[in-house]
């Protein structure tokens, strides 16, 4: 029975981590510390040993990937503030043409999410999705899922995002090799996401923004107008 206690403890720790992150307002860092403590104590470590192990593990992981994460955050911020992320999207949309906007958005997400955190990138590019849906009368669900899928895939597979970097640091994997492998493996996933997004558009055809009787706008103008309208809205309270 003693052999199974660490395994059961690990399963409980994973469950607690997932529950705290998904179902409560506990910060992810606190949730990870709680889960790590459960796993350590159930594995036979004392409270002091558990804290010491967590501290050493955190320090060694941060020491091996901290600089790369910092530089990645800086690069992502430059792309975010300079408008380069939107420009990448505009270029792919122009290159691929009409009725292929979901491919353009998925490819944009595939590229942009490498240096920019996925949540920030989605916030930056979602107004473009809304403008595309209004101007081209495309399904908003299709475009949104294609963008989100492209963002999520590379964010979770390609350094310098923290997750892949952490895995590389723990297992001693060469970061360059992991980037190449992640980029390669992400390609079929992006294709699958786009096909799934198209299927969702056919299954739920009503996900379209309300069309107003107004003169057609250039895509960039529609995007800028949407941002202006959003910024002009008063905050609650």
From TrEMBL:
Transmembrane residue ranges: 5-22, 28-48, 103-128, 140-158, 170-197
Pfam family for this entry, one: GntP_permease
Keywords: Membrane, Transmembrane, Transmembrane helix
Single GO cellular component term: plasma membrane
Domain of life: Bacteria
InterPro entries in the cross-refs: Glcn_transporter (IPR003474)
GO MF entry, a single one: gluconate transmembrane transporter activity
Protein name, as recorded: 5-keto-D-gluconate transporter
Source organism of this protein record: Serratia rubidaea (Serratia marinorubra)
